[in-house]
Structure formats: C-alpha cells, structure tokens
Amino acid sequence: MSKPSKNNSTQINSKTGLLSNARINLSPNCDDRHDEEDINLIVIHNISLPPNEFGGEGIDQLFTNTLNKDEHPFYEEIHELRVSSHLLIRRDGEIVQYVPFHKRAWHAGVSQFLGRDVCNNFSIGIEMEGTDFEPFTKQQYQVLEKTLLVLIETYPNVKPGRITGHENIALGRKTDPGPYFDWDKISKALGAKLPAKCDE
Q: Is residue 14 included in any domain, yes or no?
C-alpha cells in the first residue's frame, strides 16, 4: 500500500481550526473539547436532506438550526435536533466546514471506540453527501483523500489507521457511511486497513 504524501496544497489554520479550501458556515452546535491534544479519530458519515436528494440547503439548515419543518415531511421529525459535523463533502466535491477542528462537533452520539465512550470528545466528523443505497462520486473520494492527508499531517494523534465509519462506533444504531462507501479505495490511498477496528 502507498504511504500518505506530504505534497498537499490544502492547509489548516492552526489558530482558527479552519480548512483553507472549505466554504465556512459555522454551526452553533459545538463546544470546547476537554483536551484539544486528544484528537485521534476520524469518523465518516453520510447524509442527504431531504432523504435521498442532493444539492439542496437542507444540510446547511440542519447544522445551523434553521431547518423549516414545513418544507418537507421528514423535517417535522428532525427540525429540533441540535447536531453538527466538522465537514461536509458534497457530491461535486465542495467542502463545507461547520465546526473548527479544535472544537467538539456533535456528530457521533452514543458511541464507542476501543473502549472509550463519547467519540465526539476525541474525533473529527466528516459527512459525505450521500445515502446507504448508491455509490459516492469520484470527486468526493478525491477531496476526501486530500482532506484526510492534511488532517493526518496536522494532528499527530490521527494516524492513517484511526479512521472509521459511524456504523462502526455506533453498532446497531447507525448504518452510515453504508455498503457503497469504498473503504478499499481509502485504505490504498492512506496505506492502512480501513475501517479501523473499533472494539478491543
């Protein structure tokens, strides 16, 4: 397997915790980490709003608490949720950042990784615009690979082998990023067997 390359033009501002090539849309749904040095896991999710539809403003609205419950029947169920993720990678490869990396995003919920509960405390959440029922796009994988590399370079405790799916840290509760997420592609790009094993 190939090893991560350090030739990556994307950068993270160490003071702001923001990605240089992201559209910034800050979410109020975050708080301080107990220990900013304890960032050691990346969790991959998928999301689409409305369900199975792409390209709309629903994800931005959900993560910024501006979802209109009258716009879609599903929104009636979720409009009061207070959730967020650090990043969203849209179908066309656009990156949106909602939470600075040194802050705690509310993406994992009840979760466990290698015996540690509350994965929000020590993880970075990345949403892929998509569903459990269809492949992700080439552009998304290209952007995800570059983003993972810069995160690994910036946060020394985030090793290539410490990347996993929401379904793996929330067994039986979540199913994302789902069966169409190509872990082999990401494994080859980073030189690690993924998704990371989450139980001890």
A: no
